[in-house]
Amino acid sequence: MFENIPVEVGLIHEGERIRKNDMHVELGGPSIREKFEIVRVRKDDDITDGSIDIIGPDINDLNEGKSYPVGIIVEISGPKLEKDLEGVIERRIHEYSNYIEGFMHLNQRYDIWIRLSKKSFKKGLNSFTQIGKVMQELFKNELPFIEKIQITFITDPEKIHPFYTEAFAIYDERDARARGLSDEDVDTFYGCALCQSFAPTHVCVITPQRYANCGAISWFDGRAAAGIDPKGPIYAIKKGECLDSEKGEYSGVNESAKIRSMGEVSRVQLYSGFGYPHTSCGCFEGIAFYIPEVEGFGIVLRGFRDKTVNGLGFSTMADSTAGGRQVEGFHGISIEYMRSRKFMHADGGYDRVVWMPLEIKEKIKSFIPEGVYEKIATEKDVSNIPELKEFLVAHQHPVTRLWESVEPSGKTHAHQMSVFSCEDIPITAGGFRIILKNARITAEKIIIQPVKPQQPPGG
Fold first, then answer.
1. CA 362 to the chain's CA centroid
2. How far does CA 203 lie from the centroid of its chain?
3. Domain parsing of the chain, residue ranges
4. Residues in the chain with pLDDT < 70?
5. Full 3-state SS string of the chain
6. Residue 320's pLDDT is what?
7. Phi and psi at residue 84, in whole multiples of 5°?
8. Distance CA 376, CA 355 (A)
9. Closest among 245, 171, 238 to 205, alpha carbons compared
10. What are 52-91's pLDDT values in tens digits?
11. How far apart are the first and last CA of the chain?
12. Spatial separation of the C-alpha atoms in residues 26 and 62, rounded to whole Å
């Protein structure tokens, strides 16, 4: 199938990571503002099957080690295709491009991050035409209801902007459609296993009020995908019995999670960052992270380049959040979930959010309760925890009601929470010395016990 492609193409390359020193070129990523990928369903006569267009310099014309804007437009047609499938098929760009040896694709929509390795470039992978041919073959073979497909790659920084703006408008239109439906209105949720190659125990649950963590698949998208391909990576989940309406725990979700995670995850609470939080793969749009000193949550999105109020950056916290684990206090989220009435419902919703970057705060302003909006700090207001405490007290943030006491200085005592912080914590174990950098440890109780030396035999 891929005889004219100079590198291997197959499942074995999914999950491959390309470090900066090993990359030939980078497309999109954190340093590039305008990057996107989108799928559009077209009429049959509007598609030139097999066409691959490149607007801007091709891979071979890009400077080694540099980063560039990128847009990927996949246009498809077929009698079984409907508009609801666009978001689902769009997510397959991530999957199929990762089949290519030395071609790393992360994230989705307006957050895509692509790297081509030096090794694959030297083998001859030097044109978007090759990438497009692989994607077209995989789309048609894996999704036979696609009859025609054409792909456009955009790398010209002067020409990408109108395409980028149009893509954003389409994303917003899709997202708005799902907001009128509640989780109580339906008896079926949907699951997505597209990211299990990166996080084998991750179980993404998609409900009307909880978008996929990647922000790319709504409940309507899930319904359309499961209907046309019931045995595919997006599947129906019967809700079953509601075990906890506040936390969002359902018997059907738990049963599905246990099966799909190979027994690693047996309970999922959809609306909380504590207890049994929804797992995260690594493609989440943002992180809700617990700040124990103030008993509130901070929010950070992938594109935020600075350190957050707790001194950590997005990438550092992403390592604690990703991998298909349930980590209390680190909760992968999508932007659309932040617009939901169920957002962190069990934890207090926006009454518990104390910090977020100004850009996202303004973007979702209309979804934050009016009485709380001005009480949430941003990077423009505070830069560390002591300043955050003072801000929350001065603005009478609802989270301060959870504190046992507030001293005149603005210092707080967290409710039922012990925190130990230190720049370096050395640990010696098993002949190794481990140093935790900028560590912050939270525990209900610390027990220190002396270890008696073992007596030699016969001693």
1. 20
2. 13
3. 11-178, 181-284+333-341, 287-321+348-459
4. 404-459
5. CCCCCCCCECHHHCCCCCCHHHEEEEEECCCCCCEEEEEEECCHHHCCCCCEEEECCCHHHCCCCCEECEEEEEEEECCCCCHHHHHHHHHHHHHHHCCECCEEEECCHHHCEEEEEHHHHHHCCCCHHHHHHHHHHHHHHHCCCCCEEEEEEECCCCCHHHHHHHHHHHHHHHHHHHHHCCHHHCCEEEEECCCCCCCCCCCEEEECCECCCCCCCCHHHHHHHHHHCCCCCEEEEECCCEEECCCCEEHHHHHHHHHHCCCCCCCCECCCCCCCECCCCCCCCEEEEEECCCCEEEEEECCCCCCCCCCCCHHHHHHHHCCCCCCCCEEEECCCHHHCCCCCHHHCHHHHEEECCHHHHHHCHHHCCHHHHCCCECCCCCCCHHHHHHHHHHCCCHHHHHCCEECCCCCEECCCCEEEEEEEEEEEECCEEEEEEEEEEEECCCCCCCCCCCCCCCC
6. 82
7. -60, -20
8. 5
9. 238
10. 999 999 999 999 999 999 999 999 999 989 888 898 899 8
11. 72
12. 9
Tokens coding 196: 């299990």
**Token representation of residue 234:** 């997006």
As a whole number of angstroms, the longest Cα–Cα distance in the chain is 90
pLDDT score at 3: 82
User: Fold match between 181-284+333-341 and 287-321+348-459?
Assistant: no
> What's the pLDDT at 423?
40
Residue type, position 448, single letter: I
| Separation CA 224–CA 219 (nearest Å) | 9
Q: Calculate the alpha carbon distances from 236 to 122, 144, 269, 309, 314 in Å.
A: 43, 21, 18, 39, 32
In CATH, 287-321+348-459 is 3.40.710.10: no
Which class is domain 11-178? alpha beta
Residue 294 makes CB contacts below 8 A (sequence gap 6+) with 354, 385, 388, 389, 392, 399, 403, 412, 414
Q: Which residues have C-beta within 8 Å of that of residue 97, sequence separation ≥ 6?
A: 103, 105, 114, 131, 134, 135
Q: What is the CATH topology of the domain spanning 181-284+333-341?
A: Ribonuclease HI; Chain A (3.40.970)
